[in-house]
Amino acid sequence: MTAVTACNKDNEETKTPLERTVLIYMAAENNLTKWNNNSYYYADDDLKQIKEGAKIIGNNCLAVYVDKAESTPPYMLYYRNGELTDSIPMEETYTSAPATLEQVAGRAFRDNAASSYGLVLWGHGTGWNIKSDSVSYTSMARKKAYGGDTGNNTYNTTGKYWMNLPSMAKALSHAPHLDFIFCDCCHMACIENAYELRNVTDYLIGSAAEIPGEGAPYQTVVPAMMEKSTFWRSIVDRYYEQRSEGLDVPLAVVKTSEVATLASATKNVLQSFADKFGGEYPDMSGLIHYYNDKSHGNMYYDMNDFILKFASSDNYAAWKQAFDRAVVYKKMATRWMTNRVYYSSDWNIYYGDFTVTEQKFGGVTMFVPQWRFQNTENTTISQMGWYYAAGYEAIGW
User: Fold this and answer.
1) Is the entire prediction scored with pTM above 0.85?
2) What is the Cα–Cα distance from 248 to 45, expressed in whole angstroms?
3) Cβ-contact 33, 70 below 8 angstroms
């Protein structure tokens, strides 16, 4: 391995500025390195696809930070003009630490200065969910939000060290502004996440649901990420073309410059709900949801489906205009892991207990307090900026 930054050197010699540098941040110190008795090697498979996709990226640079669950320390790869130009050894650390993300992004983008930048979050995700206590910028949250480090290079768990979204936003505030953040991990298409990241990226791309273990087809998604203006649509289209295990993947693109306006529109609608609910939490049965937690059931509900159910026709129409300006593109699915049709006696939950339609599907989730979350998410949601912007506190949520 060498620590020479050839991408930057070549750029200086040719005087041709890079058009875009994209960093794939691979948090694989967990069961995504090996899974199901070593039957699946998702990280290695994706690295092969990334190499294939990087062959046709043109005058762009693809940086890949890799932290797998094995004895090899983390390393960084740089691809430019179809070739691997550098493989750089990195120090062993927690990939889920915000300081590591800041350091890696800083190095990747300094070594490969470009006209624009993008970021891929590769790993496990649990949406906006945040640890119940306040998490400082330099600390790590356990089993929340993004990442999934084990801390000891093992691969048989989803990890115990995670990064909260407010900490992620602060880490990325030190990097160049991003054209996009593409989340190749579960449950990250939350309006709370988009609001939290609104100042560091133009677009948030991802799925509200569980995604298959193999994630995106990088042989086609990598070139899509380098498109000048249509990247957000092309990333979703290339991802959606892939099918796995008979399941579709619902996907959405949020334009972050519009989420503050959507928050205001949501605040107006929620205020109209105050008398309707009469101090109680709304009945969410039958609504599209994207997650089942063994201990306390559904948590991530479709934002559009929720507003559609409870708002008046006029209020919904006004709100929907703001929603459509924020959620600029989406691909509907009717089946994902939560929506498989079977009964689980262990969880006491019927899967497939909702119907997905074009009218109901929004592709982005919004947390709605429920009694079963009284001592958990009903409290921790107040650590997210969306809580205040959307007026939860004003209606007693």
Assistant:
1) yes
2) 20
3) yes
